[in-house]
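Action item from last week, closing it out:
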Amino acid sequence: MFCTSTIVEGVNTDAQNMVILNASKGGEKLTPFDIKNIKGRAGRYYHCFVGRVFYMSKELLDIENSNSLSLDFVTYSDKSISVIDLDNADIQDLSTQNKEAKIEREDIAKNFILPKEVFIINRTISRDNQEKLARTLLDDTEFSKYSNWITYSVDIENFLHFRWISKILDTYCKAGLIDESTGKRFSAIANNYYSGGFRDILKYEINMYRQGKRKTMDDAYSRAFNSRRDVLEHKIPKILSLFESVIVFVAKKKNVNAENFSLSKVCRYYETGVKTLLGEALIEYGFPTDAIRRIEEKHTALNHMSVIEAKRYCREHYQAIKELLDEYENVLFVKAMRTF
């Protein structure tokens, strides 16, 4: 088996022999930890109790025998830590220097309108930035953009069709959490993904290459995959999660009922690319995202169904669904349906 550095993370294999060709992963050198982790893939209980590892480079042995990296628990040391770490750490866990910094942070936080229990929901985002967003949304003009919308349960299709992500990113820009160019870029990626899936994102990057704005075709492909992984699957869900917790807090202060407001389904859409509970189950099974999107687009009734209800629907409309799938997808779909 030839693969990427995924193998280092602990992919279970039945390999009896492990051959390590060189001492690098991409442009970086393997660490002693990496090498020991790779070696652990050789030999598996109930398959082969003893595994063999072959080094094709002496450098691998030199790295393995070198000193491993030591772990540095910064909250217990005298090193200065970030304000995010200060806000999240318990004062008794900090060194003398950082305890003083923590006390200063708590004095500053007394002037924040956003309470700690709201901050903790998205605790990896600095409390200062969360405060900026809260103060921006407290402005009557800004809040009025969302005041009616947040009183209802969010429908994914409505959110995507009316491009609410663009409005939310605009609010982030006004709060100073992202710059205007980043907001426009994230908005374009999100809206292109909705209109044409990953293919539209890739098509855009390939056009940039043909216009001479990307160095190589590989660069275009790399940027497209980075947009999906970094922006769609990570940053936008993080942006939406913070927006949800802050606007619900602001709505409460303004006596607006937002108890049913949730963006969790929208976050899952950007993380997985699918809109339905059936789609999420199929993703877990390993079913192709593009095929799920074809089913969801033609059978919108699935949007509001549980997995059991969707399974019954798919059985009743199987011939119509079958026409949307190629031979391999159809075989996989039938197998998946039997497992749910």
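Closing note: The beta strands are 17-20, 24-25, 28-29, 52-55.
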